[in-house]
Prior knowledge:
Helix content is 68%, strand content 1%. It has 16 helices and two strands. It has a two-stranded antiparallel sheet. A hairpin with an 8-residue loop joins strand 1 and strand 2 (117-118). It is globular, with a radius of gyration of 22 Å.
Amino acid sequence: MARNAPLLGLTVLAMLGLAVLMVHSAGASADGAALSITQIVTSRHAIYALAALVAMWLASRINLRTLLSQGRGHRLVIGATVVAIGLTALALVPGFGPSINGARRWLWVGPRSWSLTFQPSELVKWVMVVAVAWWCAHRRAAMHRFWHGLLPALLLVGVGCGLILIEDLGTAVLIGMVAVILLWAGGARLWQLGLLVPAAAGALVAAILSSPYRVGRLTSFLDPWADSQGAGYQAIQSMLAIAEGGLTGRGLGGGIQKFGYLPADTSDFLFAVICEELGIGGAALVIGAYLLLLWLAVAIIRDCRDSFSRLLGLGIALTIGCQAVMNIAVVCVVVPTKGIGLPLLSAGGSGWILTASALGLLAALDRANARDAVSTTITDAHRGEPAGVLVSSA
């Protein structure tokens, strides 16, 4: 059986390397001196990237079947979910985290003088994937029943998304969308999930109408030039950056929009900087990297032999794929601004580390598949049967 984990690791390494370069380029100021290679390698972003790679390696060594065995799996899943949701609620309390651009999404890590923060919603995003996959796998026989199979999972997802929705609509939509697909793949009836559409749509409309800045984002999306110096400014500058990049781009470090014209250039709108400096080729390279990650995920999922592993792999692939599509769509002004970053690329230490950890779990599934293949080969050899045929058909 071919191993996909090494290529997965190399892809993540390449993306984090590109992220460090582009975040530094996007964060440059017009009156600042160019950073040396030594300064970039020893910067905070480079340290975050290294921490993400270490986290991915550690996660890849986890034996998920043993860790989430029947005896203790529910305790670990419930404990992690309670902690993640509790931290998200704590971030909403004034004093426990900074308020950035009027939003409370972060918590302090260590003394405030360190200026280290993380978003609990990032933790919820990945814990929810594990929790929903575990629930669907262990309640597989009851998932078609609403009260005993689907409802408990929906309540869990609803609480998590409800808390995040207060300050971060984009992440809440992403979590809810991935969870619904996982529940359907895990055995829930499609018509039961369809009954939730009116309630979900109502909650989404209420969340938008209750927040003036969200209404402003929607109206500016419909006509950015109606308020070109206000609500529509970011969308216009993003389109301008993409247009000025053209086919070949201005060259690494040669972008103009990052010099105070394009807000959130290192985070939510980093893709616009990539387009301006690296052109269509750079944009295609980024999209190709995500497609490669998804292709590797599908290859790993296809070889998984238990439902939890398949659902977990699917959840990881969906989260990364959907988040990338949402961010690129926002940058290209195909959908309204949602405040959601580009996985593994947009600046954010906790985002890099948690996303890399999730991909490490995907690599752990690949290692488990390899062990299963070896075990099957040995068993077939003891039986005196042609192992190659049986392994190929497994």
